Amino acid sequence: MKKSILFIHQSFPGQFGRLAQKLAEEGHRVIALALTPQGQVPGVSQIRYSLKRTPGKDMPYLLKETDVKILRGESAADAMQKLKSQGFNPDVVYAHPGWGEALFVKEVWPDARLVVYAEWFYNTEGQEVGFDPEFPPTSDADKLRIHLKNTPFLHALNDADLAITPTEWQKSRFPSWAQEKMEVVHDGLDIAKIRAAKPGALGIPKQSVSLKYGDPVVTFVARHLEPVRGIHMFMRAVPQILRKRPDAHIVILGKDAGTGYTGYGGINPLGSTWRQSLQDELGRDLDLSHVHFLGTVDYKVYLTILGLSACHVYLTTPFILSWSFLETAALGVPMVASGTAPVREFSRLNGLHLVDFFDYAALGAKVVDILGQPVSRTPNDLEDQSLDSTLPVLTDLLLNQAGPIHSPRPVVSAPEPLRPKPASRRKNRRR
Q1: CATH entry, 4-188+387-399, from 3.40.50.2000, 3.40.50.1170, 2.40.50.1070, 3.90.1150.10
Q2: Beta carbons of 34 and 12 less than 8 angstroms apart
Q3: End-to-end CA distance of the chain, in Å?
Q4: In the chain, % of residues over pLDDT 70
Q5: Coil, strand or helix: which one is 396?
Q6: What is the average pLDDT across 274-302?
Q7: What is the distance between the alpha carbons of residues 311 and 324, in angstroms, rounded to a whole number?
Q8: CB contact at 8 A, 33 and 76
Q9: How far apart are CA 25 and CA 59, in angstroms?
Q10: Distance CA 312, CA 343 (A)
Q11: What whole-number distance in Å separates Cα of residue 100 and Cα of residue 207?
C-alpha cells in the first residue's frame, strides 16, 4: 500500500534528499515542508512556509533563543494545518526538530507516525562547547542559551514514535529515555559515485599551481573553517609540515567563519575570521605560496581534490562526525584524524592514524611521515554507511514499523571529560 509522507527540514533536502527521492520513485506521495529550501528533489512537492512575524529583537537574551524556535514551530504548524484542510493527512512525518519546526506535529496529526532525526544533543561541557580551553563560553548566559537549544529536541523526542541518529556517538549524547526509541542508521553515502571519481589534476590559477595525483598534497575539509573543526590546530601544524616537506601543497576547503557568519561555533573575539587571525598569528612561518584556500567547491571538484590527496587531515572536537571523514575513508586516502570520540567510533578503518586533537606537533609529524611513504590506498568497505544499505533500512523504519511512545525518563548521558589546557600550547603564539 502506498503511503503519504511529510518531510520537515528547515533547509530541505538536508539529510533527507535521497530517501525522499527513493520514496517518491516507489510511488508514495511525498511532500516536504521547509523555511529556506535548498534545492529540488525529483518527485517531491515542496512547500515553503513563512514566519508569522519577525523574531523578537528587544527581548531578554535567553528568550531570543526560545522565541525563534517557538515562532518556527508555530509557523510550521500553520502550514501543516493548511495541508490538513486540503485533505493531506500523512501516514508518516519525518522531521529534523533542531530549529523548532517539529514542536507541534502531533497537535496537528496525532495519529501520524512521527519519526525525528536526532542529530545532536547539547551539553555545556565536554562536547564542542567547553572541550577546548582556548575557547570557553564567553559568559554564564551563553551556557544557559546552549542548554536551551535542546528544547525543540526534547519536545519532539517526547512526542516521537521513533528517532533515527547517524552514529553511536551521536546517540550517546541524548538522555537515556530518548535513546530507548532510537535506531542508529547513517544518512548514507553514495559509495559508487565517490569511487567513480578518478584522480585528476587540480589547477589553481591565482597561485600558478597545478597539482596531480602522486604530488605531496595535504588536504583539509570542513564546512566552516573554525575551531570546532580544528582549523586552528591544523594551521599551526602547517609550518612544520612545509619546513620538512617544502615541496608539499596544502589544500583547504571550507567557508570562512568567525565574524558575521559563525558556522557551528561562536564569533572570533579577535574580530576577524578564524583564518585571518591564524594567518596573523603564524606570520612569516606560514608560506602562503604553498597553502591554498579554495572556499567551497562543487561535489565533483571536491571528489577530484580528495582523489589526488596524499594525506588528508580531519580534526573535530566531540561533535557531529562529518561526511567528509567517511568519504575520505571510502577512497582509502591515508588520513590523520583527531582521536576524539566521534572519530574513535571508526578507529578500525584502513589508513586511519589518530593523534591528540591538541598536539599539532604530533599531527605535523604524522603528516610528514605519511608523505615520505609510497602512495598507497586501501578503500574501506563502509557497508553500514552505504546508501545501498541505509536506504532500505530507513524505508523500512519509516513505513513498515510501528510502536508505542515511550514514557520519558530524564537521565542525561555524561559528557566527555573536559580536557586540561596543555602548558606548551601558547608558548610561541604571535598576536
Answers
A1: 3.40.50.2000
A2: yes
A3: 65
A4: 93
A5: helix
A6: 96
A7: 13
A8: yes
A9: 46
A10: 14
A11: 45
Tell me how far apart the alpha carbons of residues 269 and 271 are, in angstroms, rounded to a whole number.
5
Backbone phi, psi, residue 21, to 5°: -65, -45
Q: What is the mean pLDDT of residues 2-12?
A: 97
Q: How many CA atoms lie within 13 A of 138 on its CB side?
A: 5
Same fold, 4-188+387-399 and 191-383: yes
Classify each residue of 404-428 as buried b or exposed e, where b means 16 or more C-beta atoms within 10 Å of its C-beta.
Answer: eeeeeeeeeeebbeebeeeeebeee
Cell digits of residue 266: 561562536
Q: Helices 299-308 and 323-331 sit at what angle, rounded to 10 degrees?
A: 50
Q: Are 69 and 41 in contact (CB under 8 A)?
A: no
Instruction: Measure CA 126 to chain center.
Output: 18
pTM here?
0.90
**What does residue 385 show for φ and ψ, rounded to 5 degrees?**
-105, 0
CA proximity to 413, closest of 136, 94, 179, 73: 179
Q: Which CATH class is domain 191-383?
A: alpha beta
Parse the chain into domains and list their residue ranges.
Answer: 4-188+387-399, 191-383
**In this structure, what are the phi and psi dihedrals at residue 352, rounded to the nearest 5 degrees?**
-100, 130
Cell (9 digits) for 282: 603564524
> With pLDDT > 90 as the criterion, what percentage of the chain qualifies?
79
The predicted-structure confidence for 314-354, as pLDDT tens digits, reads as follows 999 999 999 999 999 999 999 999 999 999 999 999 999 99
Q: How confident is the model at residue 409 (pLDDT cuts 50, 70, 90)?
A: very low
Joined grid coordinates for residue 37: 529550501
In this structure, the chain runs to a length of 431
